[in-house]
Design a protein that fits this description.
Elements lengths: L2 E5 L5 H10 L2 H4 L9 H13 L2 E8 L5 E9 L8 E8 L8 H16 L3 E6 L4 H9 L3 E11 L5 E10 H10 L4
Parallel strand pairs: 4-5
Antiparallel strand pairs: 1-2, 2-3, 3-4, 5-7, 6-7
């Protein structure tokens, strides 16, 4: 199944609602806000328009359905304007086929355009596929916050914070002759 990665646009509201509704609830825990709520999507689109977020979607070439999304969130007015937070979601039935990697490569390109030198990502440690993907691209574990996320049912989960230091990764790649 083929897909294309492009920018998230206001016309994608309904497609994003359908995508979010189909995600397992556990996938949404690390976002901080419930993506299934229309006001959250509206706030997301407003932040894109204001320049605080860059966001990509992956769209199935055959059905036109949204099957993944990635966002790069930053605060250019805060103490860490060089840092961006990466948020990645992939449809459960499309995992393991390189879609997440395609979205993250798009985020890396945007981060470079924005001059960001550090990226972070948050996820629950049991999301082993996501942890493996991020680590394969140079992210490393930086913190573990115990019982930090509470599901709607009251279940507590740890939150892992991974980071990517562009300078460190570039130096390591140069040392090992990797492009």
């Amino acid at each position: 199944m083929s897909h294309r990665v492009r920018r998230f646009e206001p016309a994608d509201r309904m497609g994003m609602a359908a995508f979010a509704a189909a995600l397992p609830e556990h996938d949404l825990l690390f976002l901080g806000r419930d993506l299934r709520h229309p006001r959250v999507v509206e706030a997301w689109l407003a932040a894109i328009a204001e320049g605080w977020i860059d966001s990509l979607v992956a769209q199935d070439d055959e059905t036109g359905a949204l099957i993944g999304t990635a966002a790069l969130v930053r605060d250019p007015l805060g103490w860490s304007p060089h840092v961006g937070e990466v948020r990645l979601l992939v449809a459960a039935d499309r995992r393991g086929a390189g879609l997440g990697r395609d979205l993250l490569e798009g985020v890396f390109a945007i981060a470079g355009e924005r001059g960001l030198t550090k990226l972070t990502a948050r996820m629950t440690p049991d999301q082993t596929g996501a942890v493996t993907l991020f680590e394969s691209l140079g992210f490393r574990g930086e913190a573990l916050l115990r019982d930090h996320v509470c599901s709607p049912a009251g279940e507590l989960f740890d939150l892992a914070i991974l980071s990517y230091d562009a300078g460190r990764v570039a130096a390591r790649n140069e040392a090992f002759g990797v492009d």
